[in-house]
Design goal:
heterodimer, A: FAD/NAD(P)-binding domain, FAD/NAD(P)-binding domain, 2 domains, 5-stranded parallel beta sheet, 11 helices, globular, B: 184 residues, mainly alpha, Cytochrome Bc1 Complex, Chain D, domain 2, binds flavin-adenine dinucleotide
Chain lengths: 428, 184
């Protein structure tokens, strides 16, 4: 596979020029943190990266692990839909990185990664460059702009996506708080593949519940470009029918043809929609970082990896996990926090084995996504996956997957317990 | 003598295969819901790290055969055949038990203590469990209450636990708080 060399060079040129302007680092390639023993650098302090860093240390404490992350805090996308409608506070989903340092001796470098120098096994960051024996990259997702329909990311302050938790979450939350009586909300679902398949439908349910709870008498229009609800369809539709009949309107196979953020209007093949709040969740691709670092083949949107080891097909000694990976090159796993957590564990064994010159064990993963359908009831989907020697991919184990028969109150409690446990496993 | 040798060989073999790091991966995926090494910090999902081995084995097997009430576990357990369940039970039983860190109601716990003696018969003094009798001391009060109600209502069927049918909701609440309050 060919690297997107042209863009790669162009981007790194721009970034290097940028340093002078911002004065972050005069010479970004100046080496910092000189390497002594074996070292793994992990880029991205999200679900995948933190898990990888922690489990490398659990598997072999003698390896030096440096976690590179541009933000000083971890803000969880899971549970952020509850924050948006006021069921939980922002503080509930916000964490520091200090436990990883304290409990496992992981070094934390708050910096932005800008380039990989493969020949030197070096990662260039805004604070200087660091050498690695192995580099694990888990940079999350990026968004696709579509100028033809008038969608640019610069619109996200006015029509937020809230598909990366943080400032965006707060913007959408504030807009909903200001939703007038009788006002309407438009939620645009992204086209598959995107992170967290049930996420948009959970959000739609919770916004409908918010409208109902507060007697606002308004509506939510769910505009979905996909053929149908992409996850737990029956269960979501049952909840919508039972609870939000006059509030939630769902449209499938919707092509947005124009967005007018001034007039808060969206034109589509299924008619025109005007809303007081527009939550436009754009189509997705690998994180801009993955493109910048040269991990995406020409003309592709995701990072291709070896399905067994997660080593990048583009750059040796570099491993890619999490939402940025091409699904087909891994198997049948969705883009979720639980899967990124699972991949973190697989890659931890993979890099530790490779540093010892051994063959790692076969990938084994699990997924679980709980979704609230109201302020008190939830549904879920879960599956266990294993590497299959015949297809050479990680696929669902027969019968070890499914959804519940109906929504329930206890699953709403399990969602919170699940979140507390996965945060614990990722960060503490 | 021959028998003994065979036993020894099997024993050594099993321990060797247990030591093989490769299998850790099938236990590691549980942590996303049960916390690292089964030390669940979310109180509706049970702590399984440090739980009794026989009980873990029995429960996993029942989930995998749809012979036990549950939700997600009825799916997850089907990824685990007998050999894997054997491993999983050993793995989690060897972890340190980390008691619940969620608050409990002190007054209710005192009430519960007064009626808990009968439970010691099977769950051991102070609810530490053994063999097929699960550890209940230091488990999350929320989970204990939930599961005791299931025994009371006959949703969770077990002869030895059928005594719960005689208990009121208040007594169940008290017992849950008492056993959860034992936190060493
Ligand atoms: C609303 C919503 C609800 C969700 N709910 C669930 C759920 O219930 N269950 C579930 O399993 N999943 C859920 N998800 C999906 C989950 O959040 C993602 O799948 C998960 O975060 C992917 O992990 P990751 O490691 O790939 O990326 P991320 O967690 O996004 O981590 C990427 C990290 O890399 C950092 N980074 C990127 N580029 C650079 C750079 N150049 N330099 C330094 N740092 C960089 C970023 O700052 C970020 O911290 C949800 C998502 C959304 C949006």
């Amino acid at each position: 596979m060919k690297l997107n060399r042209r863009n790669f060079v162009k981007n790194s040129a721009i970034l290097t020029a940028g340093f002078g302007v911002y004065g972050i680092a005069r010479n970004a390639t100046a080496s910092i943190m000189p390497k002594k023993g074996k070292r793994v650098v992990v880029l991205g302090g999200g679900f995948g990266g933190c898990t990888a860093a922690k489990y490398i240390k659990l598997n072999d404490p003698s390896i030096e692990v440096i976690l590179v992350e541009k933000n000083d805090k971890f803000i969880s996308c899971p549970i952020s839909n509850l924050v948006i409608v006021g069921l939980r506070g922002m503080d509930f989903i916000t964490f520091k990185y200090d436990q990883l340092q304290k409990n496992y001796g992981i070094k934390f470098l708050q910096a932005e990664a800008v380039q990989i120098i493969p020949e030197k096994n070096q990662l260039v960051t805004s604070k200087g460059s660091i050498e690695y024996d192995r580099l694990v990259v888990s940079p999350g997702i990026g968004f696709i702009e579509n100028k033809e329909i008038g969608y640019q990311l610069s619109l996200a302050n006015k029509i937020p996506h809230a598909w990366k938790a943080g400032k965006q979450t707060e913007i959408l939350k504030a807009q909903l708080q200001n939703l007038p009586k009788g006002g309407s909300v438009i939620l645009r679902v992204p086209k598959s593949p995107y992170r967290c398949p049930p996420g948009p439908y959970e959000r739609a349910s919770l916004i409908a519940n918010y409208i109902k709870r507060n007697n606002l008498g308004g509506k939510i229009f769910v505009l979905d470009p996909n053929d149908d609800v992409t996850s737990k369809g029956k269960l979501f539709k049952a909840a919508w029918g039972d609870l939000y009949k006059d509030i939630l309107e769902y449209y499938n196979q919707v092509d947005v043809t124009n967005i007018n953020a001034e007039k808060m209007n969206i034109e589509t093949n299924k008619g025109n929609f005007t809303g007081n709040v527009i939550n436009f969740i754009p189509d997705q691709k690998a994180s801009d970082t993955a493109f910048k670092l040269g991990l995406i083949p020409e003309g592709k949107l995701w990072a291709f990896v070896d399905s067994y080891t997660f080593e990048s097909e583009a750059i040796k000694n570099v491993y890619v996990i999490g939402d940025s990976t091409n699904t087909g090159s891994v198997g049948t796993v969705p883009k979720s926090g639980y899967i990124a957590n699972s991949m973190g564990k697989v890659v931890a064994e993979s890099v530790v084995a490779s540093l010892k010159g051994e063959k790692p064990p076969k990938p084994f993963m699990a997924n679980a996504c709980y979704s609230m359908v109201s302020d008190s009831e939830a549904i879920w989907v879960t599956a266990v996956y294993e590497f299959d020697d015949n297809v050479k991919r990680t696929i669902t184990i027969k019968n070890a997957s499914g959804t519940p028969h109906e929504r329930s109150k206890i699953d709403a409690f399990h969602q919170i317990s699940w979140a507390e446990n996965i945060w614990n496993d990722v960060l503490m | 003598m021959k028998k003994y040798l065979l036993f020894l060989m099997v024993f050594v073999f099993f321990n060797l295969s247990f030591a093989a790091d490769g299998e850790k991966r099938i236990a590691a995926v549980c942590a996303g819901c049960h916390g690292t090494n089964g030390a669940s910090v979310g109180d509706s999902i049970p702590i399984i790290g440090g739980q009794s081995e026989d009980y873990l084995k029995k429960v996993m097997k029942e989930y995998s055969e749809d012979k036990r009430v549950g939700s997600v576990m009825l799916k997850v357990a089907k990824g685990y055949d007998d050999k894997r369940i054997e491993y999983i039970a050993k793995y989690f039983s060897k972890q340190k038990w980390v008691s619940s860190n969620k608050p409990f109601d002190k007054k209710l716990a005192e009430e519960g203590e007064k009626i808990a003696v009968i439970c010691f018969d099977c769950h051991g003094k102070n609810g530490k469990g053994m063999d097929e009798y699960p550890r209940i001391a230091g488990q999350h009060a929320f989970y204990l209450k939930q599961v005791l109600k299931e025994y009371k209502d006959g949703i969770n069927k077990n002869d030895e636990m059928s005594l719960l049918k005689e208990y009121s909701d208040e007594q169940i609440e008290a017992l849950a708080n008492y056993f959860s309050s034992i936190r060493q």
